[in-house]
Amino acid sequence: MSARRRLYWRPHQVSLAELLFLAVAALALLAVVELWLVGRPQPDHLLRMRAATLTRDAQQVIKAHRLAHGPPLEPAVDPMGTGLIGTYSTPVTSTPGVLSAKQTATNPNYAGVVVRDLVAAGVKPGDVVAVGVSGSFPGLNIAVFAACKVMRLDCLVIASATGSQWGANHPDLLWIDMERLLVDAGVFTLRSRAASYGGLRDRAIGLGAEGHRLLDRGIARNGLDYIESESIEAAVDARMARYAEWAGGRPIAAYVNVGGGTASVGSTLGKKMYQPGLNLRPPGQPVPVPAVMDRFARQGVPVLHFTNINVIARKAGLPVAPTEAQVPGEGQLFVRVRYNRWLAAGAALLLFGLIVAVVRTEWGHRLFGRFGGKPPPEQMV
Fold first, then answer.
1. Contact between residue 373 and residue 365 where contact means Cβ atoms under 8 Å apart
2. How far is 371 from 15, CA to CA, in rounded Å?
3. Of 68, 95, 167, 362, which residue is the least packed, with the fewest Cβ within 10 Å?
4. In terms of domains, do 343 and 250 share one?
5. Predicted structure pTM score
């Protein structure tokens, strides 16, 4: 044997008390890490917050008008009392609609999604943005207008006068009427420059003479340029020509579609060929029916496609069909919550040290020996 002797320890068997101690320590450290999360503002947090706040203010204008002049609110379908949920059927109702999607779109924080996607599309203050809206999602229309205002964009808007079920489908309070109310109240200066009937083939086929008469009155009382076309292709051509004329030679930085207006998205299949939200390039195949959205996309213009509203909301961390009023600026869309990396690393090191102390040294035996622990580590030579 060498003249130099080495001293080492043979670890003792770990007792139940020691195992319980380590388990409790691990759970306690985990709880500390979970409770001490760090909130980091999302990029463009202030713009998103301002847009959400402006959206809420605009909603209050529409709500106040309905409370004063009608039509009355319907708490059963509008539990948050926004004034932006319509009714099941009227002479100007274009297509079936999903109530939960309409309710989701009244969340003022949806404006943060619009800002996020416009920024991701590379849109800058002063840029020209083309917008296509209908009466199907008045809450989301307001969110788009709010985002355009806080980002200081020059937005060129064309509307469809009809709205689907639960949208802006009251004959005396169409979306184009809401726009005018918001301008009169000083909330926005932005409103549509032209409007079509919307609905089937962009001509409201199936509504009948009364529906067409009510739409004519709505377009006339709001002083809008009426787009009348004999075909979908002609409707798309008319919109593209107006956008180009209004842009005055300036490039269009993005196209924003809200809902499923036929002239804007084409057929149902065409609408599904584009993903909900931001599309930086078109699908591989052209849409089967001409559409403004597809025309812009194939010119290299980013497209914001706001359809499948609940899907977009879930991905953004927004509630679907909320029943309580939403506070502007709340949620992960505005502040991203993350673990404190330094705290997590410190907790891991502390737990590792405790394990070593209990298993590899006499510390665990001295502390827990009286609870029936095994003999202490045996000194070996």
1. yes
2. 9
3. 68
4. no
5. 0.82
